[in-house]
Specification:
The complex is a heterotrimer of chains A (314), B (421) and C (269).
Chain A: H1 26-58, H2 75-81, H3 84-114, H4 120-130, H5 137-147, H6 154-161, H7 176-201, H8 205-213, H9 218-229, H10 231-245, H11 250-255, H12 267-276, H13 281-313
Helix pairs in contact in A: 1-13, 2-13, 3-7, 3-10, 4-7, 7-10, 10-13, 12-13
Chain B: H1 2-18, E1 27-33, H2 40-55, E2 59-65, H3 69-82, E3 88-92, H4 97-101, H5 109-114, H6 117-120, H7 123-127, E4 130-131, E5 134-135, E6 138-143, E7 145-150, H8 151-156, H9 168-182, E8 188-190, H10 195-204, H11 222-236, H12 244-247, H13 249-257, E9 261-267, H14 271-278, E10 282-285, E11 295-296, E12 298-304, H15 310-323, H16 326-336, H17 349-357, H18 363-366, E13 371-372, H19 379-395, H20 401-420
Parallel strand pairs in B: 1-2, 1-3, 8-9, 11-13
Antiparallel strand pairs in B: 3-12, 4-5, 6-12, 7-9, 7-10
Chain C: H1 6-29, H2 34-39, H3 47-53, H4 58-89, H5 95-104, H6 114-123, H7 130-134, H8 141-152, H9 156-164, H10 169-180, H11 182-198, H12 201-206, H13 215-224, H14 234-267
The chains are: A mainly alpha (314), B alpha/beta (421), C mainly alpha (269).
Chain lengths: 314, 421, 269
């Protein structure tokens, strides 16, 4: 395994000058800029300028067709914040996060603590769990649309065998979101497991040995040693998966289009709908800006909390 | 790719040679439409295009199946800032107003005026293309919603003879009986009405979504609310319509085609497909007349984008005119079930055969007495795109119908005002 | 924490199979005829793949996905390596700020740029083109960050030795740094490739012409148009789905370790 570099790693003695102490030709001074120009240009054009554009558009009214984009001030934000759609989307997204995140992390920790050894079967099983996380989300969404299809779907065929009536999984507003949570968990859990395994493997064996000598049972060891020591990893995964939940789009788009009755209309789906179905570019941009603010806030919490905790892990 | 290149190369060569003598320049028309090439409607369109290209060797139609009417609207609107719109496009008769209003579509009035076709088209067909006194689309497929039912399901549900199907109550009664008798076999009484049928049912209840004369938004008028309450109750209260057709109206249609639904209210344009699927068991009747008899004229027409080059526009209009001539229209009528739009279509052998051998294909035509075109101000595009989610909320019993429609009406009025600016 | 019980290992395998069963069953289904599936029977065929590739153009989509993901990976890795090298080995005015700006993009949700990027590419006429698919996702801040950290772990004395031999800084990069950082570069290349392979929302809005669809867009659309007479043709859809996960499935065993390493190290970002 290669040395794991981290942001925290900043060897104090290291000078970061590429030149020899005797001096640097002028060209050498310019070189680093040349090296970073391509990257910076792309980042500027496709990330930073768009933020400005979005903010600008969020104060305007446009439908792609009109030659002008009149300035309307905060109108779009007002419209958005007073609409049932926005609050519904926020509620659905929060609900998704609130249930999918604990489910993912709880299961992942359980599975990971079972898979820390390096034997062949465990490695194979780890691979099995990991596979969906690198597989196309569209494929997964299509496969699960079939699994949960009301007619001829796998889930209902299985239910039929045990004598249970068909369940309209994706047509019932009370159920559809849970199906999406399940599918998302299935897809993402491999990632969580891998991270947890790394966290668990970093816990020195002596700690476990000591705990066993003290006469603690498995549960005791888990609660007293494992759980506190993987806390930094948990924090990390918690924030990452909340951020992810706020960006879920593909499974919604393929499996439910936000329906039934807006029960799965998560924020990015609403953004797509407002922008590319209703062509209310101003409101769509306002929504993008709000989403941006929410996610930046979450990311800042992450670097605050995790920044401190990760030292601990390393 | 290669073939296209060769085509192009060949075309350029012809153009080069022909430039000095007769104008034989090959013109390519990109054409977006909504008819799945795998289904009967798409096959009929392909036949018409094939005939046109055979008759006009200098014109090449590159047709592309985009999806349903909503998909076309979305894709066209997205295409405008990107300048990737096609040359010609099928647009649904209530949703092209926005594009006409914004100068996206070419005013075809002059073309139509010079075209003898104009005297051959039925009045209703002429009317659907008019927006603010100008002609923007020429109808290709015209329809009204009709009532389809499955005779076999009716018989098995205990209807020895045809029950009355005139009022909301009639339909509900029949649907209940079917669901009660055959529910165990997974058969339900009626397919949840799609948007076109919903509009029709509102008109049957002596109302409309938008007043066709004054342009007032009627979404929150008492009769509209009553109509939606009844439609929603089919699903969440009486459970005689499956929720599948609510989330995706195609699924309601497909369930009928599979013989799992007794009644379907749908466009006459699904006639041939339905006939193919359930054969002799298909019966077609007029739409119910709950308070009045009134049905919307639906379907779509072909428009030309104002960004197209002049020679492309000329060629595209040639195609539009060809597609509406009696021969093409007869192919279309017989192959799909859409209504004839040309007065001479009925003289064609193909159309005569269809009328003789395909019972019920003429029901839509017989409804023309009380059919009317619907207003098409720019806001309709937004209104129809927004209605789906609200319908789901009402039909699945998530939200109160009156509350939803009151709010929706207010939003639609605001949107209409915004669009008028 | 060591588990030595063979029963548990057997249970582990069963759990793995059960976990993957929806995917495995979908692949199994892709080799059956639709008629047999709906009748509850069993009849094997390769016809679904034939139709997916022929009639429904999945060969074309496969090519598009390979091409686009390939170029994004090559370009992305080249840009990231160059920038990482500069950030790891040189101090220059504004380097901290620029590096900070790069890292900050990791926090920025890509969706905020959806509409603006659409308009930018519309303005320069690059929608409906490979370039339009390739350019926006090409810069990878994560790979840059990751490689910079990795390069900083490579002893500086190796650079110095090369400089003594008269190498230019570019030669130091290509002859010293890149060979030593190869595992990290490979991990990041995979990371970029898989992300791009699976990306959906951008190709969905940027591409209107069906000959430029990527597998993901093609598959979502195939599912949406309900292929089949009156019932959706699930075996056909599953054949298309299998085609779109195939490369990842095939390469998975070979690269899993690199992927896991990349992800684990990334977790501590």
């Amino acid at each position: 395994m290669a040395p794991a570099p981290t942001l925290m790693q900043n060897p104090p003695g290291q000078t970061s000058s590429g030149c020899s102490p005797t001096g640097c030709p002028m060209v050498r001074k310019l070189l680093p800029y040349l090296y970073i120009v391509p990257l910076m240009a792309f980042i500027a054009v496709f990330t930073y300028i768009p933020i400005v554009t979005s903010i600008n558009l969020s104060f305007r009214e446009w439908d792609f067709l009109s030659p002008t984009m009149p300035f309307v001030g905060l109108e779009n934000y007002k419209l958005l914040l007073s609409s049932t759609e926005f609050w519904n989307s926020l509620r659905v997204t929060a609900l998704f996060a609130a249930f999918s995140v604990p489910l993912r992390l709880g299961l992942a920790l359980l599975i990971a603590s079972w898979l820390t050894s390096d034997r062949f079967e465990t490695r194979l099983l780890r691979g099995a769990f990991f596979l969906p996380s690198v597989t196309s989300t569209v494929s997964i969404a299509v496969v699960f649309s079939w699994v949960f299809a009301t007619d001829y779907g796998v889930a209902n065929e299985l239910l039929k065998r045990i004598g249970v009536d068909k369940i309209p999984w994706l047509q019932d507003p009370r159920i559809a979101l849970w199906v999406l949570i399940l599918v998302n968990t299935w897809k993402q859990i491999g990632y969580d497991i891998v991270i947890y395994i790394a966290g668990l493997q970093a816990i020195p064996d002596e700690l476990y040995d000591a705990a066993s000598v003290d006469g603690g049972g498995r549960f005791h060891v888990f609660r007293r040693i494992t759980l506190p020591l993987v806390m930094p990893t948990t924090y990390f995964l918690l924030v990452i998966s909340v951020i992810e939940a706020f960006q879920v789009f593909t499974i919604v788009s393929v499996m439910t289009h936000g329906g039934p009755a807006s029960a799965t209309d998560m924020l990015v789906n609403m953004l797509y709908r407002v922008g590319f179905v209703l062509f209310d570019i101003g409101t769509g941009s306002a929504l993008a800006v709000l989403l941006f603010i929410i996610l930046i806030a979450l990311a800042l919490i992450k670097s605050r909390v995790i920044g401190r905790k990760v030292h601990y892990e390393a | 790719m290669t073939r296209n290149f060769l085509k192009l190369a060949g075309a350029s060569l012809i153009a080069l040679v022909g430039a000095t003598s007769i104008s034989m320049a090959a013109t390519t028309i990109t054409f977006w439409h909504s008819f799945d090439p795998e289904k009967p409607n798409g096959k009929a369109l392909a036949e018409i295009i094939g005939n046109f290209e055979a008759a006009n060797p200098g014109i090449d139609i590159q047709s592309e199946f985009i999806g349903n009417y909503n998909d076309i609207v979305a894709k066209l609107q997205a295409a405008i800032p990107a300048h990737r719109e096609p040359d010609a496009v099928i647009m649904e008769v209530t949703r092209y107003g926005l594009f006409a209003d914004r100068g996206v579509l070419t005013d075809l009035s002059d073309y139509v005026e010079k075209d003898p076709l104009k005297n051959d088209l039925f009045d209703f067909a002429r009317e659907v293309g008019m927006f603010k006194g100008k002609n923007y689309i020429v109808p290709f497929n015209s329809s009204t919603p009709v009532l389809y039912y499955n005779k076999d399901i009716f018989a098995r549900a205990g209807f020895a003879e045809e029950p009355a199907l005139k009022t909301y109550d009639d339909i509900l009664k029949v649907s209940k009986q079917i669901t009660e008798k055959l529910g165990v076999e997974g058969i339900t009484g009626i397919a949840a009405p799609g948007q076109f049928a919903r509009w029709g049912l509102v008109m049957d209840n002596d109302s409309d979504l938008i007043d066709s004369k004054t342009g007032d938004i009627l979404l929150d008028s008492a009769n509209t609310i009553e109509a939606y309450q009844w439609m929603a109750s089919l699903v969440h209260e009486h459970k005689v319509a499956s929720a599948d057709g609510v989330t995706d109206e195609d699924m309601g249609r497909d369930a009928f085609l599979q013989g799992k639904v007794g009644i379907m209210l749908n466009s006459t344009g699904t006639y041939v497909r339905s006939k193919k699927a359930i054969g002799e068991n298909l019966a077609v009747r007029p739409m119910p007349c709950n308070k009045v008899c009134s049905v919307p004229i639906g379907g779509a027409g072909i428009g030309i984008l104002s960004t197209a080059e002049q020679d492309v526009k000329d060629a595209a209009y040639k195609f539009i005119s060809f597609a509406a001539n009696p021969e093409s229209n007869a192919i279309w009528f017989a192959g799909t079930g859409y209504m004839p739009i040309n007065k001479h279509t009925a003289d064609q052998q193909k159309a005569k055969d269809a009328l003789a051998k395909q019972p019920g294909i003429d029901v839509a035509i017989s409804q023309l007495d009380f059919a009317r075109g619907r207003p098409r101000p720019p806001v309709v595009t937004w209104m129809r795109a927004s209605e789906y989610d609200l319908w789901q909320a009402m039909a699945l019993g998530q939200r109160d119908v009156k509350e939803v429609l009151t709010e929706f009406a207010a939003k639609t009025r605001a949107e209409a005002e915004r669009l008028a600016k | 924490m060591k588990l030595e019980n063979p029963l548990r290992s057997a249970a582990a395998l069963i759990v793995g199979l059960v976990f993957l069963s929806p995917a495995l069953y979908s692949i199994w289904l892709s080799f059956q005829t639709a008629d047999a599936y709906y009748a509850g029977g069993l009849e094997f065929t390769l016809d679904n793949y034939g139709r997916a590739v022929g009639q429904y153009h999945f060969a074309r989509y496969l090519f598009n996905s390979v091409f686009v993901s390939g170029i994004v990976t090559l370009g992305g890795i080249a840009m990231a390596t160059l920038a990482a090298y500069a950030f790891a080995r040189f101090t220059f005015r504004g380097s901290d700020l620029l590096f900070g700006l790069t890292i900050a993009t990791l926090m920025i949700p890509s969706h905020i740029s959806l509409i603006p990027n659409y308009l930018t590419l519309a303005r320069v006429g690059l929608l409906d083109s490979y370039a339009g698919l390739i350019l926006p996702p090409m810069a990878s801040a994560f790979a840059t960050f990751f490689l910079r950290q990795y390069i900083r772990g490579i002893p500086r004395s190796l650079d110095e030795a090369a400089y003594m031999d008269g190498a230019s800084s570019l030669q130091v990069l290509t002859r010293v740094i890149v060979p030593l950082a190869r595992p990290a570069i490979l991990s990041m290349a995979l990371y970029i490739f898989i992300n791009e392979w699976n990306s959906y929302i951008w190709p969905l809005v940027a591409i209107g012409k069906s000959d430029l669809y990527t597998l993901q867009v093609g598959l979502a659309r195939l599912y949406k148009i309900n292929p089949g007479e009156d019932l959706i043709d699930w075996p056909l859809v599953m054949a298309a789905s299998t085609i779109s996960i195939l490369p990842v499935l095939l390469g998975f065993a070979l690269v899993e370790r690199h992927l896991v390493r990349g992800i684990t190290m990334g977790a501590v970002k």
